[in-house]
Design a protein that fits this description.
Trefoil (Acidic Fibroblast Growth Factor, subunit A), Thaumatin, 36 strands, single chain, about 525 residues, 3 domains, mainly beta, Metal Transport, Frataxin, Chain A, 8-stranded antiparallel β-sheet
């Protein structure tokens, strides 16, 4: 989901773009969500300021831009002017620290949920639409306000809701969607994740000025590299040496782009001549060409990497943009690469995206416009939602909600009293992970490592075999490698693997020693209840 445009008039189309592949087939489908979806904003920030909430967007039926009140009524904006005129005050009073506020979101809208602490946001109207806050500009009316936003689309095919760091990292917040299969959640930071992110980015050579503070010392935000460079706070040519090297690598070899995961045989082949990379299809016909992009083009996934809403040029452009941001173009010759352990190894690299992802409990973030390539974005979706949520998290400490203990290791006990066990204490890759009677041996001493959101025993990680996503895929022991197959999020008394969108499950709630565990649709049953400690 992209947020590079300043006028919210473009926002509806941008928000819908992320769902095109899923929603396209559902056009005209029966509505499955309620007319008005309850969205609960929870304030766990630990701060005492007043909270203000705004639901702004595009009515998908009329195309009109407007706002939503707490009861879920959409109202179109009045006409604006040049110079821009102040918009009406449409703030919804949000929850105090430790509290929550539920508002209603009408079906058929795409936009943003803004939330600010301590001061209301200032919006303005032009004849073309709403001018969004642009706090990376020092003269912007909202520059000194502590605020953030999430993006959403809610239509007849369900809701898509994501936390966004495309423009900046500011207020730590998670998003949730609840449906018949349970609650999906993303955006949680590791413990002290906000402080970690700020300090780690500031420590990178040339990046210190991307951290923006208020006069009272409050860190308001860390700017994404494109915004920072545009404001003169980061070198405008920072990524150019890597781009030139990666682009030039394909003068002597071929880049293969496989843009659709469900169409592995649809491939495009790129070679560079001079500063132009040209792509052909399987029949040798030229289908696209791209001039070598600038740093700004890569940060914004625009300019030379502009991605039209088609089925060829756009998908190739987004794949190139993701590869350049992640530093894998030039070294990984089939794209997109989905091996997260290979990301951000280039020099120079996108330190902002690297550090933001590293401080997310599930590794997911929208740190640049096409971070959804390969499904690394912080997005939740449900085709039949009953509720949604936005949780403002602690600025210090914190981490995922009620994480299990860490340390030297504890038994991981299923609801039936059996323990998760590394078969025969064997540490070979691929060793069977099973249920067994609890015996206190090293094979049952599990630790939850929050920094990587992994479950570990005997120095290795709990791993979904082959990175599989199907129901019944076995779970095994493997070297810890940072891939999505090894991410386990505490959720509803169990462990959720975001890559597969499934949960750690004891088949049939078995009590037979030696039964190998697997992943299955999250359903909240006792077979998926595990207690560590």
């Amino acid at each position: 989901m992209r947020t590079s445009k300043r006028l919210i008039g473009a926002l509806g189309a941008l928000a819908v773009a992320v769902t095109t592949a899923v929603v396209g087939a559902a056009t005209g489908a029966q509505a499955v969500g309620p007319d008005r979806l309850p969205l609960t904003i929870t304030n766990s920030s630990g701060r005492g300021e007043a909270v203000y909430v705004y639901v702004l967007g595009t009515n998908l039926t009329t195309g009109r831009l407007g706002y939503v009140n707490a009861g879920g009524t959409f109202t179109a904006w009045p006409a604006g002017s040049n110079p821009p005129s102040p918009a009406p005050d449409v703030a919804i009073t949000g929850p105090g620290n430790g509290g929550s506020t539920t508002i209603q979101v009408p079906r058929g809208i795409s936009g943003r949920v803004y939330f600010s602490l301590g001061e209301k946001l200032k919006f303005f109207l032009t004849p073309d639409g709403l001018v969004q806050p642009a706090p990376w500009a020092s003269g912007d009316a909202n520059h000194n306000i502590l605020f953030d936003w999430s993006e959403f689309t809610y239509n007849d095919a369900g809701i898509w809701l994501n936390s966004s760091q495309v423009d900046m990292f500011a207020l730590p917040h998670a998003v949730t969607v609840t449906g018949a299969s349970g609650t999906r959640r993303t955006g949680d930071l590791v413990a002290s994740g906000r402080t970690n992110t700020i300090n780690q980015i500031a420590a990178q050579p040339g990046w210190a000025n991307t951290v923006v503070k208020r006069a009272d010392g409050t860190v308001l935000r860390v700017l994404a590299p494109g915004k920072a460079a545009g404001a003169g706070l980061l070198s405008t040519t920072y990524l150019d040496p890597y781009i030139a090297s990666a682009w030039g690598a394909y003068t002597g070899k071929t880049l293969t782009v496989v843009p659709f995961g469900d169409q592995p045989n649809l491939r495009y082949f790129g070679r560079t001549s001079g500063t132009t990379m040209t792509f052909t299809n399987g029949s040798g016909q030229q289908v696209a060409s791209f001039a070598r992009p600038s740093s700004a083009d890569v940060w914004g996934c625009d300019g030379a990497l502009h991605a039209p809403n088609d089925q060829v040029v756009g998908p190739i452009a987004r794949t190139l943009c993701a590869a350049l941001n992640r530093g894998t173009l030039g070294t990984v010759d089939t794209q997109p690469s989905t091996d997260a352990s290979a990301f951000y190894k280039s020099n120079p690299t996108n330190q902002y995206a690297r550090i933001v992802h590293a401080n997310m409990a599930d590794g997911k973030a929208y740190a640049f416009a096409f971070d959804d390539v390969g499904a690394f974005e912080s997005l939740v979706h449900d085709g039949s939602p009953s509720a949604a949520g936005l949780i403002i998290q602690p600025f210090t400490g914190g981490g995922t909600t009620n994480p299990p203990p860490t340390g030297s290791g504890s038994a991981l006990v299923n609801a039936n009293g059996m323990c998760l066990d590394n078969s025969a204490q064997n540490t070979a890759n691929g060793n069977k992970i099973q249920i067994w009677g609890c015996n206190g041996t090293v094979a049952q001493k599990w630790t939850f490592v929050q920094a990587g959101t992994t479950l570990r025993v005997q120095g290795k990680c709990l791993d979904v075999a082959g990175g599989g996503t199907a129901n019944g895929t076995k779970v095994q022991l493997w070297d810890c490698n940072g891939t999505g197959a090894q991410v386990w999020i505490p959720q509803n008394g169990g462990y959720y693997n975001p890559q597969s969108n499934r949960c750690l499950d004891n088949p049939g709630h078995s009590t037979t020693p030696g039964t190998q565990v697997h992943i299955w649709d999250c359903n909240g049953a006792n077979a998926q209840k595990w207690k560590l400690g």
